[in-house]
Amino acid sequence: MHHVVSATTNPAKIRAILHAFNEIFGEGSCHIESVSVDSGVPEQPFGSQETRAGARNRVENARKLRPDADFWVAIEAGIDEGSTFSWVVIESPEMQGEARSATLPLPEIILQKVRAGEALGPVMSHHTGIDEIGRKEGAIGVFTAGKLTRESVYHQAVILALSPFHNAVYR
Q1: Where does substrate bind (predicted)?
Q2: Is 131 flagged in the annotation as binding?
């Protein structure tokens, strides 16, 4: 059984990681341990570079905390060019995979508050009345009328980031 350390305690992110690992390596083949680690970037990262750095930092910090795991996984959400997205970084002792998620354009009323220094999750919670929305369907669920969720978009990006771990062409 693979020991997978999730560098987050966010339930939507953990579900996406578990679902993707089960699809790639087989149902029940992984045990997910979630840890809370620092990203080294602001709570609301801006730009692809800062967001990717946050995910890489989380993986590095998770590795230090749980060095004997088989995989370390981080999902860092950010804002780039008026859209929300995330970077997924996955490492094993031998290799690394990274993927950027799909992006969701945000309405100007939300972006104004985020640009003023508020994080997207609390802004969306205030706007929708959904407590801790970032741990649930997220802005993606709200603005796609539930057709996509934070978890479903993260799941796709985790699948993409896992490609080097099971496809021999990468080696």
Answers
A1: 8-13, 68-69
A2: no
